[in-house]
Amino acid sequence: MLLTCDPNDGEGGIKLLDELTTNAKQIQQQILESILQQNGETEYLGKFLGDHVINKDTFKNKVPVVNYEDIKPYIERLANGEPSNIICSQTITELLTSSGTSGGQPKMMPTTSEDLDRKTFMYNILVPVMNKYVDGLDQGKGMYLLFIKPEISTPSGLVARPVLTSYYKSSNFRNRAFSRYSVYTSPDETILCSDNKQSMYCQLLCGLIQRDEVLRVGAVFASAFLRAIKFLEDFWQELCSNIRTGNVSTWITDRGCRTAVMSILRQPNEELADYIEKECGKKSWDGIVKRLWPRTKYIDVIVTGSMAQYIPTLDFYSGGLPLLSTMYASSESYFGINVNPLNKSSDVSYTLLPNMAYFEFIPVEKNHDEEEASQGLQCNGLSDKICSLGEEEQQVMETVDLADVKVGHYYEIVVTTFTG
């Protein structure tokens, strides 16, 4: 069930979001039916469903909840050259490596070109939500510090790389339709630079040059944004020198970066260099973000789950700017968005979008087991975990559908996607 959302159509986007959440039960049923119809004859599902009628009941009764280790042999077979249809009817285009932010070793997840369209949908539907709460986002730019990470080629030729690297290098991102609400200070060439030091330097330089146009700043994770602040502490004098002279440092050797930055730098700007030197040269960096980018309305970073530890440091540097966690996503699937983005960090919750995947929930007794309880609370952070049950538990444990979860109860999430 592929949907599209025009980020420039605020009214249409909010209406679509209302329809998705209001009809969640029906849409989830359609998603599961679609997944089963497409993949019912794959080797993986076939061994459980056999000759049974392929529907929700047989899926619930015959297909067990598993963990990554159960799926891993199939993924390794894909990586070694076996056809996609051992697990997915569509062509697997690449393997996504998990970030490991939820603990444990990185995993590999199969994905298709269609999955990129689902990710794009979620980025687009965030725009009307943000516009509902923050005025004037079309009157400036976002300084988002985005990076790619190394990728590897598997024996089959499939590329294995992190989910965000996959998205930024895709045509969905590089050839994205123009939206006046999603203009970045960082040229694509600086985001797609494989040298993270050059990428960081050039993105910060572009952000400083365009400081008067910046309305929001951010990165994916809070930790990444704070790394950028530390980088700025180390390199602000050199950045000021570049702005003062109108030339980029000679160690910036990536041709795409140099060309893109020079198209923004254009000419010397002593007044801007003096101002940045004055602010960065002060003894305290309290509120440095607000001082350097005075029009900034908020900082867009994930500060839930394991990222919550960085909130006090972000508050110090931000000068009281709101910290907005807008999205809940992982390598396995994109899940949902924060429909009340201005809530305090401690009150953040995410609304799952029922067209992303088929979601089930395992009830967790809050005080039954401390470890299980803490895992159940990770619904407020990015998670790379597929929930699992033991062999005996699989026979007695029933999962709860998205439309049937109860307020105040704790759950672990189980996700079934079009690729596994």
TrEMBL record:
Key word Ligase present: yes
GO cellular component, one term: cytoplasm
Domain GH3 middle: 350-420
Record key words, sorted: Ligase
GO MF terms held by the record: acid-amino acid ligase activity
Family per similarity comment: Belongs to the IAA-amido conjugating enzyme family.
Matches recorded under PANTHER family: GH3 DOMAIN-CONTAINING PROTEIN, INDOLE-3-ACETIC ACID-AMIDO SYNTHETASE GH3.17
Name of the featured protein: GH3 middle domain-containing protein
